[in-house]
Amino acid sequence: MNEKRMMMMEGDKEIMKKLDESTCDAQRLQLQTLQSILQRNARVGYLQPHLHHLQASQNDDHDNDNDPLTLLHPDTFRRLVPLSSYEDYAHLINRIADGLDPSSLLSFDPLLCFFYSSGTSSRGPKLIPYFDSPHSKAASLLAHQGSAAILRRLFPPQPTGDKILWFLYAGTVTETKGGFKAMAASAFPFHHNNSNRPSPILSMCASPKEVILATTDTHHQMYCHLLCALRNPDSITAIRAPYAIGLIRAFRILESMWEQLCEDLQYGSVSPHITHAPMRDAVCTLLGDPQPHLSNRIRVILEARQWSGILPKLWPKARYIACVTTGSMKQYYQKLKFYAGEIPVLGSDYFASECPVGVNLDRTQPPELTRYVILPTAAYYEFLPFGIDTGVAGETVDISGVEIGKEYEVVVTTYRGLFRYRLGDIVRVVGFYNSSPQLEFVMRAPTSTAEDLTERDLMSAMEHFQIMLRDEAKGEVLEFAGYMDLESNPRHTTIFVEFGEEGMSLMKEKSVGVLSRWCSFIEECLGGIYKVQRKRGDLGPLVLSIVKPGSFDGLLLSAVEKGAPANQYKPPKIIRNRWMIDFMEASVVLQATTE
């Protein structure tokens, strides 16, 4: 074992020790974290209406250790500062982004940039300020170093180095009117490096930086990622993407464009449909001379069209596949396993744009058994009780007050200007690691008490429908989303469904009566609240809308054009954005109701 590898192993042991220690006295560390946040930011503009009467009149120094705001007890803090959501910050954030107000309204730390969230589960992309907080950087560094150490413990680095087929899209960076950069959180390492050296991630990627940093159609980037990895198939040791849907979309391109990929390898050129010049030139350089033998090897594998277990056939040295597979990504897990064959599919961590939340200590578990351990130094956490029948209600509890088996919405106070901020994530407490809660991600929270359909209910119903569909017609649901029309009387729910090619051809042969039966089947599988409201007449008949092939890909492209980061895009399960609803309604080719 060489000296460099031994040093890495020792370093990983130290990181894991720190990570473990950070969960041993979680309550004390949480108190320290809140005090540290208030020591720096208790006097920001956002908090003044709530805490101004506690200010020491004789002292205007916002980070003095004797300031009563710094020593504020968590119970007092929760009593004085109200719960908040993004809407409570949107006006302030937009004015800061436009250069109209100082960033000290939210934090006294320097403002580096803004992160875009995808906004697919809300009414539009969110702009999250990213402040240069030393405490936050230390906590985030520990979280990310711990995550990397856990992965290296499972799969130690290869002596010859690791090359990853990594589906990353970090090129889209905009600038606000105030001159601040705005990007996806996952793009930050590529655009902010104090050493002015390339991000170390780039050296691990099979694709050149021009593919990752391209500002072009993500389909073209996916194609180039695949082509680069096929050029050197025996060097690929892993396949990764931020979310499971990113891998599924890429492998669908592999299915539909394999002949063109083989042709590009054969002639050492790039398909004319790739028009982004820097990306095209970089890929051509990587391809080098024509590779007829390699092309033939790949073609023999792909022309059989046996997609089950295709990945280890193409990349025989790939040791794992890694991405987020929980929450709305759970629906893609079995399809990933289908492609992966013998290659293990690993889960990822629970890191939000606002702050890290939890680390996954056992990545080999399937989505339903994935657990996240809360990181007590990353933010101050509260938990708002959530009930199937009552929704989110009651008072928050801290990490010492959570109960195993109960569900909560996560609330965070961060080093970066968010105070008692509702993340909009519903989690279930499933245990403790040392004294830190272990969480299971359940779903995105409903945004209104009028919503009778949860993300969990919809996904469960569609899972049952997919099983029935396979048994009956051997079709495949590629994607789906629900929309609740709260303005109609009575209000009603529409479910948009996109089938694969086989399913669409079968649809042409089916009568409207069969489609209505399918609609009734789905409605019967929906949750208890929905059924109660339906029986009372508060809800109208369910509408099943079949959309044309490619509709959800079109939705992605439109969302990216409107500012959603491609790297973090997650297809919405409950659509609330008006333009998305209009887009899907315009894509409908068949429709049925339960009437």
Please state the CA-atom Rg, rounded to the nearest Å.
Answer: 25 Å
First and last CA, distance: 70 Å
Which spans of ≥5 residues are poorly predicted at pLDDT below 50?
A: none
- Compute the number of strand runs: 21
Share of residues in helices: 25-40%
How would you characterize this protein structure?
- It is built from 21 helices and 21 strands.
- The radius of gyration is 25 Å and the shape is globular.
- It has 595 residues and is α/β, with parallel strands linked by helices.
- It starts with a helix and ends with a strand.
- Among the domains are: 156-318, no CATH class; 455-593.
- The mean pLDDT is 88.
- A hairpin with a 7-residue loop joins strand 14 (407-413) and strand 15 (421-433).
- The strands form four sheets. Strands 9-10-11-16-15-14-12-13 form an eight-stranded antiparallel beta sheet. It has a five-stranded mixed beta sheet with strand order 20-17-18-19-21.
